[in-house]
Amino acid sequence: MKIKILGTRAKIKPSAKGYQNFSGYLIDEKILLDVGEEKFLSENPEAIIFTHFHPDHAYFEFDQAVFQPDIPHYGPEGNPNLPQQEIISSPFKIGEYSITPFPVIHALSLKSLAYLIEKGNKKLFYTGDVAWIEKKHLSQLPKVDLVITEATFIKKGGRINRKDDQIYGHTGVPDLIRIFKPHTNHIVFSHYGEWFYEDIPKALDTLKNFESDQLKITPASDGMEINI
Asked: Are the CB atoms for 193 and 209 separated by under 8 Å?
């Protein structure tokens, strides 16, 4: 599988060359995971899969505009701006790709899914934004070749909010490494928060310092391509 990283910026004001687009990941020039920028559609994907409907993952939510692409598109829940989407509730296939959804805790009022994408013997896990993944779901995740996840907060614990018995927000990079290290030898971090733009060279070094003999860390940039 070839993964082209189209966008790496979280829903924040800071921006920089190479780290200015909102979220989007293109698999083998066929499957587009999240559409944070309308221009991503010029890649001519054959299908679109959304993790959730925050506007940095679904650009049309900024303006509350109806989005009706003429290709199959899938998401975790109904959305009035996506009248033709197919709602995901179980594993499905797109051509030679097998896609398995994993429930993710992220937003208070939106449903979120991560996706295990398999092609032959290659496995990619894309999380979208994460406050937490329950152990009963994470236990179903096999060893994968690559995890793409978020780096909104560099500090342990991230920023987790709570309302009644529900948590929401973003967990931190150290927590995500702890979660996914048993499942992969390679993590790509993207979806950068404000901390990253304060000193980008330092931020890149900080991420790489989490690397070990057992775990490769790749800080993503707009336009980067990775093969697994």
From this structure: no
Q: Where are the domains of the chain?
A: 2-227
Query: 122, exposed or middle or buried, with CB in 10 Å at 0-12, 13-18, 19+?
Result: middle
Q: Is 156 left (phi over 0), alpha (psi -120 to 50) or beta?
A: beta
Q: Distances from the Cα of 12 to the Cαs of 71, 160, 168, in angstroms?
A: 29, 17, 18
β pairing state of 146-151 and 225-227: unpaired
Q: Which residues pair with 150 in a beta bridge?
A: 190
**pTM of the model as a whole:** 0.98
Structure tokens at 153: 């907060």
Residue 86's SS3 state is strand
Class of domain 2-227: alpha beta
DSSP secondary structure code for residue 62 in this structure: T
Torsion over CA: 51, 53, 54, 58 (sign): positive
pLDDT one digit per residue (tens) for the chain, 228 residues? 999 999 999 999 999 999 999 999 999 999 999 999 999 999 999 999 999 999 999 999 999 999 999 999 999 999 999 999 999 999 999 999 999 999 999 999 999 999 999 999 999 999 999 999 999 999 999 999 999 999 999 999 999 999 998 999 999 999 999 999 999 999 999 999 999 999 999 999 999 999 999 999 999 999 999 999
